[in-house]
UniProtKB/TrEMBL annotation:
Protein keywords: Signal
Name recorded for this polypeptide: Sporulation protein
Positions of region (Disordered): 179-217
Annotated signal peptide: 1-19
Family matches, as InterPro entries: Spore_lipoprot_YhcN/YlaJ-like
Length: 217
C-alpha cells in the first residue's frame, strides 16, 4: 500500500492532472472552487509549456470538489508549481481514483487539509486511511489532515470556499467543522509521535502547544 501511494504521488508530480473538458460544472470565484477543466484558473504563465505560476494571494484557501466519472481519466495533463487550488485539485483527483470513493471535496488552508468524501466501502477505517494518505503524499509535512465520510461534511467545507485566512473568526469556524469530522474514522496514526491527523504529541489541532508541553520545556 505504501508503494502504491509513493507511486501515485510520483505520477502526479510528473504527469499532473487536468480535467476532461466535457460535463463539468463551471465554478470560478475568489478562493478556488474552480472549474477543473478551466486551466486559466491555475494562472498558466505559458500556454505552450503549460507551466504554472503560484497563486499570488497567499491568504486564499483552495477548494475543489469532484465526482467520479468512469468515462473520464482524472490523471491527465500537466501540473507544475502548485498553489492551494492546485493542491486541492490534486488531492481530490487522487481521492476519487481510490476504490469505493465516488465523490470528494478538499479544502486547503495555510496549515490544514479537510477532505469530505462519499464512499460505499464497508471498511470505513481503511478507506479513511487511504483518503488521508493522498493528502499526506503531496502537502508540506507540518499540515494537519482531517477526513470524513459523513454525508453532510462536503457541504460543510464547501461553505469555506469564499473565505480566507483573514476572515473574522475563521479559526473558530474551522475548528467546529474539524470536531465534527473527527467523529468519523481518521485512519492510522501518522507516526509514533503524531496522532492520525498529523498533530504532534503536546500540540493542539490549532497548531499550538499544550500547557503540559510548555511546562515540560
Amino acid at each position: 500500500m505504501k508503494k502504491w501511494f509513493l507511486a501515485a504521488a510520483a505520477a502526479f508530480m510528473i504527469t499532473g492532472c487536468q480535467a476532461d473538458n466535457n460535463g463539468d460544472t463551471a465554478y470560478d470565484n475568489d478562493l478556488g472552487m474552480r472549474n477543473v477543466s478551466d486551466t486559466d484558473s491555475y494562472n498558466f504563465a505559458d500556454k505552450t509549456t503549460q507551466k504554472l505560476i503560484p497563486n499570488q494571494d497567499t491568504d486564499q484557501f483552495g477548494y475543489v470538489r469532484l465526482q467520479k466519472n468512469e468515462n473520464d481519466s482524472t490523471q491527465q495533463g500537466v501540473i507544475g508549481a502548485i498553489d492551494r487550488d492546485a493542491v486541492a485539485d490534486m488531492i481530490t483527483r487522487m481521492a476519487v481514483n481510490l476504490p469505493n470513493v465516488n465523490e470528494a471535496a478538499t479544502l486547503v488552508t495555510d496549515d490544514k487539509v479537510l477532505i469530505g468524501y462519499q464512499t460505499d466501502a464497508e471498511g470505513r477505517f481503511e478507506t479513511a486511511d487511504q483518503v488521508k494518505k493522498t493528502a499526506l503524499s503531496v502537502i508540506p509535512r507540518y499540515y494537519h489532515v482531517y477526513v470524513s465520510d459523513d454525508d453532510t461534511v462536503i457541504s460543510d467545507i464547501e461553505r469555506f470556499q469564499n473565505l480566507t485566512t483573514r476572515t473574522n473568526n475563521i479559526d473558530s469556524y474551522l475548528q467546529s467543522t474539524i470536531q465534527k469530522m473527527k467523529q468519523s474514522p481518521q485512519g492510522e496514526k501518522v507516526s509514533d509521535g503524531e496522532n492520525p491527523n498529523g498533530v504532534m504529541d503536546g500540540e493542539t489541532d490549532e497548531g499550538k502547544m499544550t500547557e503540559d508541553s510548555n511546562t515540560m520545556q
